[in-house]
Amino acid sequence: MQFLVLLNFAAAIQGLFLTYIIAHNRLKDTKSVVLGLLTFVLSLSLLGGIYGMSGFYKSFPHFTNVADPLFLLYGPLLFIYIFALTQNRLPRNYLLHGLPFLIYIISFIPLYMKSGEEKIEWAEYIFLNDHVPLKGLLMQLLRVVHISVYIVFSLLTVKKYQKKIKDNFSDIEKISLNQAKNILYFFLFALVVACISFVFGYLFSYSFSLSNNIIGLVIGITIFALAYSTWNKKDIRTMVSSKLVDNTEDISDNPLLEESKTKGRSVFVLNQEQLEDYKTRLETAIEKEKVFIENELSLAELSRRINIQAYQLSELISRLYNESFFDFVNRHRVEEIKLRIEDPASDSFSLLGIAMDCGFNSKSSFNTAFKKFAGITPSEYRKRQLVEQEV
Protein backbone atom coordinates (compact mmCIF):
# COMPACT_ATOMS: atom_id res chain seq x y z
CA MET A 1 0.00 0.00 0.00
CA GLN A 2 2.87 2.35 0.80
CA PHE A 3 4.31 1.61 -2.64
CA LEU A 4 1.04 2.88 -4.16
CA VAL A 5 1.36 6.04 -2.07
CA LEU A 6 4.91 6.59 -3.33
CA LEU A 7 3.83 6.12 -6.96
CA ASN A 8 1.02 8.64 -6.58
CA PHE A 9 3.32 11.08 -4.79
CA ALA A 10 5.83 10.85 -7.66
CA ALA A 11 3.03 11.46 -10.18
CA ALA A 12 1.78 14.45 -8.18
CA ILE A 13 5.28 15.97 -8.13
CA GLN A 14 5.52 15.39 -11.89
CA GLY A 15 2.21 17.19 -12.35
CA LEU A 16 3.28 20.13 -10.21
CA PHE A 17 6.55 20.36 -12.14
CA LEU A 18 4.63 20.35 -15.44
CA THR A 19 2.38 23.11 -14.06
CA TYR A 20 5.47 25.16 -13.19
CA ILE A 21 6.96 24.69 -16.68
CA ILE A 22 3.71 25.77 -18.33
CA ALA A 23 3.33 28.77 -16.02
CA HIS A 24 6.95 29.78 -16.56
CA ASN A 25 6.91 29.58 -20.36
CA ARG A 26 3.37 29.80 -21.73
CA LEU A 27 1.10 31.91 -19.54
CA LYS A 28 0.40 34.36 -22.39
CA ASP A 29 -1.45 31.57 -24.20
CA THR A 30 -5.07 31.00 -23.10
CA LYS A 31 -5.12 27.26 -23.66
CA SER A 32 -1.81 26.85 -21.86
CA VAL A 33 -3.24 28.63 -18.82
CA VAL A 34 -6.16 26.18 -18.81
CA LEU A 35 -3.79 23.24 -19.32
CA GLY A 36 -1.69 24.45 -16.40
CA LEU A 37 -4.79 24.68 -14.20
CA LEU A 38 -5.83 21.17 -15.24
CA THR A 39 -2.46 19.62 -14.37
CA PHE A 40 -2.40 21.58 -11.10
CA VAL A 41 -5.88 20.33 -10.13
CA LEU A 42 -4.98 16.73 -11.04
CA SER A 43 -1.81 16.96 -8.96
CA LEU A 44 -3.57 18.39 -5.90
CA SER A 45 -6.20 15.65 -6.18
CA LEU A 46 -3.44 13.05 -6.03
CA LEU A 47 -2.04 14.67 -2.91
CA GLY A 48 -5.52 14.43 -1.39
CA GLY A 49 -5.56 10.65 -1.82
CA ILE A 50 -2.04 10.39 -0.38
CA TYR A 51 -3.16 12.51 2.58
CA GLY A 52 -5.76 9.90 3.52
CA MET A 53 -3.78 6.72 2.98
CA SER A 54 -0.53 7.91 4.56
CA GLY A 55 -2.17 9.00 7.80
CA PHE A 56 -1.25 12.68 7.49
CA TYR A 57 -4.84 13.56 8.31
CA LYS A 58 -3.95 12.90 11.97
CA SER A 59 -1.13 15.45 11.95
CA PHE A 60 -2.90 18.00 9.75
CA PRO A 61 -6.64 17.41 10.29
CA HIS A 62 -7.71 20.78 8.93
CA PHE A 63 -6.76 19.69 5.39
CA THR A 64 -9.47 17.02 5.54
CA ASN A 65 -11.61 16.97 2.37
CA VAL A 66 -9.91 20.09 0.98
CA ALA A 67 -8.75 18.38 -2.23
CA ASP A 68 -11.87 16.25 -2.72
CA PRO A 69 -14.03 18.91 -4.48
CA LEU A 70 -11.33 19.26 -7.17
CA PHE A 71 -12.82 16.22 -8.92
CA LEU A 72 -15.62 18.51 -10.06
CA LEU A 73 -13.12 20.64 -11.98
CA TYR A 74 -11.75 17.79 -14.11
CA GLY A 75 -14.56 17.87 -16.67
CA PRO A 76 -14.94 21.65 -16.96
CA LEU A 77 -11.20 22.28 -17.31
CA LEU A 78 -10.83 19.46 -19.82
CA PHE A 79 -13.68 20.83 -21.94
CA ILE A 80 -12.45 24.44 -21.68
CA TYR A 81 -8.95 23.29 -22.72
CA ILE A 82 -10.29 21.47 -25.79
CA PHE A 83 -12.49 24.45 -26.66
CA ALA A 84 -9.56 26.86 -26.34
CA LEU A 85 -7.39 24.49 -28.38
CA THR A 86 -9.83 24.55 -31.29
CA GLN A 87 -11.32 28.05 -31.01
CA ASN A 88 -8.38 29.95 -29.52
CA ARG A 89 -10.70 31.53 -26.97
CA LEU A 90 -12.64 30.63 -23.85
CA PRO A 91 -16.27 29.47 -24.14
CA ARG A 92 -19.00 31.92 -23.21
CA ASN A 93 -19.90 32.02 -19.52
CA TYR A 94 -17.10 29.56 -18.78
CA LEU A 95 -17.12 30.45 -15.07
CA LEU A 96 -20.59 28.88 -14.75
CA HIS A 97 -18.97 25.48 -15.24
CA GLY A 98 -17.48 25.90 -11.76
CA LEU A 99 -20.88 26.05 -10.04
CA PRO A 100 -20.99 22.34 -9.02
CA PHE A 101 -17.51 22.76 -7.51
CA LEU A 102 -18.67 25.82 -5.57
CA ILE A 103 -21.90 24.15 -4.40
CA TYR A 104 -19.93 21.10 -3.24
CA ILE A 105 -17.60 23.27 -1.17
CA ILE A 106 -20.53 25.13 0.39
CA SER A 107 -22.21 21.85 1.32
CA PHE A 108 -19.09 20.83 3.26
CA ILE A 109 -18.70 24.08 5.19
CA PRO A 110 -20.11 22.39 8.35
CA LEU A 111 -17.28 19.84 8.14
CA TYR A 112 -14.66 22.52 7.55
CA MET A 113 -15.88 24.33 10.68
CA LYS A 114 -15.42 21.30 12.93
CA SER A 115 -12.56 20.90 15.37
CA GLY A 116 -9.43 18.92 14.54
CA GLU A 117 -10.57 15.93 16.62
CA GLU A 118 -13.95 15.84 14.90
CA LYS A 119 -12.27 15.98 11.49
CA ILE A 120 -9.98 13.09 12.43
CA GLU A 121 -12.99 11.05 13.52
CA TRP A 122 -14.77 11.83 10.24
CA ALA A 123 -11.66 11.04 8.18
CA GLU A 124 -11.13 7.69 9.90
CA TYR A 125 -14.73 6.73 9.23
CA ILE A 126 -14.13 7.49 5.53
CA PHE A 127 -10.52 6.38 5.07
CA LEU A 128 -10.34 3.36 7.40
CA ASN A 129 -13.74 1.87 6.77
CA ASP A 130 -13.24 -1.71 5.56
CA HIS A 131 -15.47 -1.06 2.56
CA VAL A 132 -16.65 1.86 0.46
CA PRO A 133 -19.88 3.24 2.01
CA LEU A 134 -22.99 3.28 -0.20
CA LYS A 135 -23.14 7.07 0.11
CA GLY A 136 -19.52 7.29 -1.06
CA LEU A 137 -20.21 4.95 -3.97
CA LEU A 138 -23.19 7.01 -5.17
CA MET A 139 -21.19 10.22 -4.85
CA GLN A 140 -18.36 8.79 -6.94
CA LEU A 141 -20.75 7.53 -9.61
CA LEU A 142 -22.31 10.99 -9.85
CA ARG A 143 -18.82 12.43 -10.34
CA VAL A 144 -18.20 9.91 -13.11
CA VAL A 145 -21.41 11.01 -14.85
CA HIS A 146 -20.43 14.67 -14.43
CA ILE A 147 -16.98 14.17 -15.99
CA SER A 148 -18.36 11.87 -18.72
CA VAL A 149 -20.78 14.56 -19.93
CA TYR A 150 -17.88 16.97 -20.37
CA ILE A 151 -15.79 14.37 -22.17
CA VAL A 152 -18.63 13.70 -24.62
CA PHE A 153 -18.97 17.43 -25.35
CA SER A 154 -15.19 17.67 -25.73
CA LEU A 155 -15.15 14.82 -28.25
CA LEU A 156 -17.97 16.49 -30.19
CA THR A 157 -15.95 19.72 -30.22
CA VAL A 158 -12.91 17.90 -31.61
CA LYS A 159 -15.03 16.13 -34.22
CA LYS A 160 -16.61 19.39 -35.35
CA TYR A 161 -13.23 21.10 -35.62
CA GLN A 162 -11.67 18.24 -37.56
CA LYS A 163 -14.55 18.38 -40.03
CA LYS A 164 -13.90 22.09 -40.42
CA ILE A 165 -10.21 21.38 -41.02
CA LYS A 166 -11.12 18.84 -43.72
CA ASP A 167 -13.29 21.46 -45.35
CA ASN A 168 -10.32 23.83 -45.60
CA PHE A 169 -7.10 21.86 -46.04
CA SER A 170 -5.76 19.12 -48.28
CA ASP A 171 -3.18 17.94 -45.72
CA ILE A 172 -4.32 17.71 -42.09
CA GLU A 173 -1.56 15.57 -40.61
CA LYS A 174 0.25 18.54 -39.04
CA ILE A 175 -2.93 20.01 -37.63
CA SER A 176 -4.65 16.86 -36.41
CA LEU A 177 -6.23 16.80 -32.96
CA ASN A 178 -5.64 13.08 -32.52
CA GLN A 179 -3.53 13.76 -29.42
CA ALA A 180 -6.43 15.61 -27.83
CA LYS A 181 -8.83 12.80 -28.73
CA ASN A 182 -6.47 10.24 -27.21
CA ILE A 183 -6.35 12.20 -23.96
CA LEU A 184 -10.15 12.28 -23.86
CA TYR A 185 -10.32 8.53 -24.44
CA PHE A 186 -7.76 8.03 -21.71
CA PHE A 187 -9.92 10.05 -19.31
CA LEU A 188 -12.83 7.77 -20.24
CA PHE A 189 -10.63 4.78 -19.41
CA ALA A 190 -9.79 6.39 -16.04
CA LEU A 191 -13.52 6.77 -15.35
CA VAL A 192 -14.12 3.10 -16.10
CA VAL A 193 -11.32 2.17 -13.67
CA ALA A 194 -12.87 4.52 -11.10
CA CYS A 195 -16.27 2.85 -11.43
CA ILE A 196 -14.80 -0.63 -11.12
CA SER A 197 -12.66 0.36 -8.14
CA PHE A 198 -15.49 1.89 -6.15
CA VAL A 199 -17.99 -0.85 -6.97
CA PHE A 200 -15.46 -3.46 -5.86
CA GLY A 201 -14.73 -1.41 -2.76
CA TYR A 202 -18.43 -1.42 -1.95
CA LEU A 203 -18.92 -5.14 -2.63
CA PHE A 204 -15.71 -6.39 -1.05
CA SER A 205 -13.58 -5.43 1.90
CA TYR A 206 -11.10 -2.75 1.08
CA SER A 207 -11.12 0.86 2.12
CA PHE A 208 -12.32 4.04 0.45
CA SER A 209 -8.76 5.33 0.76
CA LEU A 210 -7.37 2.39 -1.22
CA SER A 211 -9.99 2.96 -3.92
CA ASN A 212 -9.00 6.61 -4.07
CA ASN A 213 -5.35 5.76 -4.52
CA ILE A 214 -6.03 3.18 -7.22
CA ILE A 215 -7.85 5.90 -9.12
CA GLY A 216 -5.02 8.25 -8.21
CA LEU A 217 -2.59 5.94 -9.96
CA VAL A 218 -4.64 6.18 -13.16
CA ILE A 219 -4.78 9.97 -12.74
CA GLY A 220 -1.00 9.96 -12.39
CA ILE A 221 -0.65 8.07 -15.65
CA THR A 222 -3.05 10.59 -17.19
CA ILE A 223 -0.76 13.42 -16.09
CA PHE A 224 2.18 11.77 -17.85
CA ALA A 225 0.04 11.21 -20.96
CA LEU A 226 -1.12 14.80 -20.85
CA ALA A 227 2.45 16.05 -20.63
CA TYR A 228 3.60 13.81 -23.48
CA SER A 229 0.68 14.63 -25.78
CA THR A 230 0.58 18.39 -25.34
CA TRP A 231 4.04 19.61 -24.46
CA ASN A 232 6.10 20.98 -27.33
CA LYS A 233 3.24 20.47 -29.80
CA LYS A 234 2.75 23.20 -32.38
CA ASP A 235 0.00 25.74 -31.83
CA ILE A 236 -2.61 24.14 -34.05
CA ARG A 237 -5.04 27.03 -34.08
CA THR A 238 -2.31 29.56 -34.92
CA MET A 239 -1.13 27.35 -37.78
CA VAL A 240 -4.53 27.36 -39.45
CA SER A 241 -6.32 30.50 -38.28
CA SER A 242 -5.20 32.69 -41.16
CA LYS A 243 -6.53 30.22 -43.73
CA LEU A 244 -9.47 28.71 -41.90
CA VAL A 245 -12.75 29.70 -43.51
CA ASP A 246 -16.00 29.80 -41.61
CA ASN A 247 -18.52 28.51 -44.14
CA THR A 248 -21.39 29.81 -42.04
CA GLU A 249 -20.37 33.44 -42.52
CA ASP A 250 -23.07 35.98 -43.32
CA ILE A 251 -23.62 36.04 -47.08
CA SER A 252 -27.10 37.50 -47.08
CA ASP A 253 -25.94 40.93 -48.28
CA ASN A 254 -24.49 39.65 -51.54
CA PRO A 255 -26.85 40.86 -54.34
CA LEU A 256 -25.41 38.42 -56.86
CA LEU A 257 -26.68 35.40 -54.97
CA GLU A 258 -30.14 34.01 -55.27
CA GLU A 259 -32.33 33.51 -52.27
CA SER A 260 -30.80 30.96 -49.92
CA LYS A 261 -32.07 27.41 -50.11
CA THR A 262 -31.85 25.27 -47.03
CA LYS A 263 -31.26 21.56 -47.16
CA GLY A 264 -30.78 20.01 -43.75
CA ARG A 265 -28.19 22.16 -42.03
CA SER A 266 -26.56 23.43 -45.23
CA VAL A 267 -27.41 26.83 -46.68
CA PHE A 268 -27.08 26.91 -50.47
CA VAL A 269 -26.35 30.31 -51.96
CA LEU A 270 -25.20 29.56 -55.52
CA ASN A 271 -27.68 29.59 -58.37
CA GLN A 272 -27.45 27.17 -61.30
CA GLU A 273 -25.62 29.61 -63.55
CA GLN A 274 -22.97 30.21 -60.92
CA LEU A 275 -22.62 26.47 -60.31
CA GLU A 276 -21.85 25.84 -63.98
CA ASP A 277 -19.44 28.76 -64.23
CA TYR A 278 -17.55 27.90 -61.04
CA LYS A 279 -17.50 24.21 -61.93
CA THR A 280 -15.74 25.05 -65.21
CA ARG A 281 -13.16 27.16 -63.38
CA LEU A 282 -12.58 24.43 -60.82
CA GLU A 283 -12.21 21.66 -63.39
CA THR A 284 -9.74 23.77 -65.37
CA ALA A 285 -7.62 24.29 -62.26
CA ILE A 286 -7.76 20.59 -61.42
CA GLU A 287 -7.46 18.91 -64.81
CA LYS A 288 -5.24 21.33 -66.73
CA GLU A 289 -3.26 23.17 -64.06
CA LYS A 290 -3.18 20.20 -61.64
CA VAL A 291 -3.17 22.50 -58.63
CA PHE A 292 -3.80 19.49 -56.37
CA ILE A 293 -0.12 18.48 -56.55
CA GLU A 294 0.74 21.47 -54.33
CA ASN A 295 1.19 19.80 -50.96
CA GLU A 296 -0.11 22.68 -48.84
CA LEU A 297 -3.06 23.61 -51.02
CA SER A 298 -5.89 25.10 -48.96
CA LEU A 299 -9.47 26.06 -49.67
CA ALA A 300 -8.55 29.73 -49.39
CA GLU A 301 -5.66 29.38 -51.84
CA LEU A 302 -7.66 27.43 -54.44
CA SER A 303 -10.58 29.86 -54.22
CA ARG A 304 -8.14 32.71 -54.87
CA ARG A 305 -6.77 30.86 -57.91
CA ILE A 306 -10.17 30.48 -59.54
CA ASN A 307 -11.37 33.91 -58.38
CA ILE A 308 -14.35 33.00 -56.23
CA GLN A 309 -15.08 33.26 -52.50
CA ALA A 310 -13.89 30.43 -50.27
CA TYR A 311 -17.39 29.68 -48.94
CA GLN A 312 -18.62 29.48 -52.55
CA LEU A 313 -15.92 26.95 -53.42
CA SER A 314 -16.80 24.94 -50.32
CA GLU A 315 -20.46 24.84 -51.38
CA LEU A 316 -19.49 23.96 -54.95
CA ILE A 317 -17.45 20.92 -53.84
CA SER A 318 -20.09 19.85 -51.35
CA ARG A 319 -23.00 20.07 -53.79
CA LEU A 320 -21.35 18.68 -56.92
CA TYR A 321 -19.08 16.04 -55.42
CA ASN A 322 -20.55 15.48 -51.95
CA GLU A 323 -17.06 15.62 -50.46
CA SER A 324 -15.00 17.69 -48.09
CA PHE A 325 -12.20 19.77 -49.60
CA PHE A 326 -9.72 17.32 -48.05
CA ASP A 327 -11.26 14.29 -49.79
CA PHE A 328 -11.80 16.17 -53.05
CA VAL A 329 -8.12 17.10 -53.39
CA ASN A 330 -6.73 13.79 -52.18
CA ARG A 331 -8.99 11.82 -54.51
CA HIS A 332 -7.48 13.69 -57.45
CA ARG A 333 -3.99 13.10 -56.07
CA VAL A 334 -4.67 9.37 -55.89
CA GLU A 335 -5.99 9.36 -59.47
CA GLU A 336 -2.84 11.12 -60.63
CA ILE A 337 -0.66 8.61 -58.77
CA LYS A 338 -2.55 5.73 -60.38
CA LEU A 339 -1.91 7.21 -63.83
CA ARG A 340 1.79 7.54 -63.09
CA ILE A 341 2.03 3.99 -61.72
CA GLU A 342 0.36 2.71 -64.89
CA ASP A 343 3.05 4.45 -66.94
CA PRO A 344 6.00 2.03 -67.45
CA ALA A 345 8.37 5.01 -67.35
CA SER A 346 7.64 5.37 -63.61
CA ASP A 347 8.80 1.85 -62.71
CA SER A 348 12.15 3.17 -61.55
CA PHE A 349 10.53 5.63 -59.11
CA SER A 350 9.51 4.70 -55.58
CA LEU A 351 5.85 4.89 -54.62
CA LEU A 352 6.62 7.43 -51.91
CA GLY A 353 8.54 9.56 -54.38
CA ILE A 354 5.57 9.58 -56.76
CA ALA A 355 3.23 10.38 -53.87
CA MET A 356 5.35 13.30 -52.68
CA ASP A 357 5.50 14.60 -56.24
CA CYS A 358 1.70 14.47 -56.39
CA GLY A 359 1.10 16.52 -53.25
CA PHE A 360 1.27 14.16 -50.28
CA ASN A 361 3.50 15.13 -47.37
CA SER A 362 3.99 11.77 -45.67
CA LYS A 363 3.86 8.05 -46.24
CA SER A 364 1.04 7.54 -43.73
CA SER A 365 -1.29 10.13 -45.28
CA PHE A 366 -0.50 8.75 -48.76
CA ASN A 367 -1.23 5.13 -47.80
CA THR A 368 -4.44 6.06 -45.98
CA ALA A 369 -5.79 8.14 -48.88
CA PHE A 370 -4.78 5.63 -51.55
CA LYS A 371 -6.47 2.72 -49.82
CA LYS A 372 -9.59 4.82 -49.23
CA PHE A 373 -10.01 5.83 -52.88
CA ALA A 374 -8.41 2.88 -54.69
CA GLY A 375 -9.57 0.12 -52.37
CA ILE A 376 -6.11 -1.46 -52.14
CA THR A 377 -2.66 -0.42 -50.96
CA PRO A 378 -0.25 1.41 -53.33
CA SER A 379 2.14 -1.56 -53.43
CA GLU A 380 -0.70 -3.94 -54.33
CA TYR A 381 -1.81 -1.59 -57.08
CA ARG A 382 1.71 -1.43 -58.53
CA LYS A 383 2.08 -5.22 -58.43
CA ARG A 384 -1.23 -5.56 -60.24
CA GLN A 385 -0.07 -3.13 -62.93
CA LEU A 386 3.24 -4.97 -63.38
CA VAL A 387 1.36 -8.27 -63.85
CA GLU A 388 -0.94 -6.67 -66.44
CA GLN A 389 2.05 -5.20 -68.30
CA GLU A 390 3.71 -8.64 -68.47
CA VAL A 391 0.54 -10.16 -69.84
TrEMBL record:
Q: What InterPro entries does the record point to?
A: Homeodomain-like_sf, HTH_AraC, HTH_AraC-typ_CS, Tscrpt_reg_AraC-type_HTH
Q: Which residues cross the membrane?
A: 6-23, 35-57, 69-87, 94-113, 137-158, 183-204, 210-231
Which UniProt keyword terms apply here? DNA-binding, Membrane, Transcription, Transcription regulation, Transmembrane, Transmembrane helix
Q: Which SUPFAM superfamilies match?
A: Homeodomain-like
HTH araC/xylS-type domain boundaries: 276-384
GO terms for MF: DNA-binding transcription factor activity; sequence-specific DNA binding
PANTHER family, A to Z: ARAC-FAMILY TRANSCRIPTIONAL REGULATOR
Report what the protein is called: AraC family transcriptional regulator
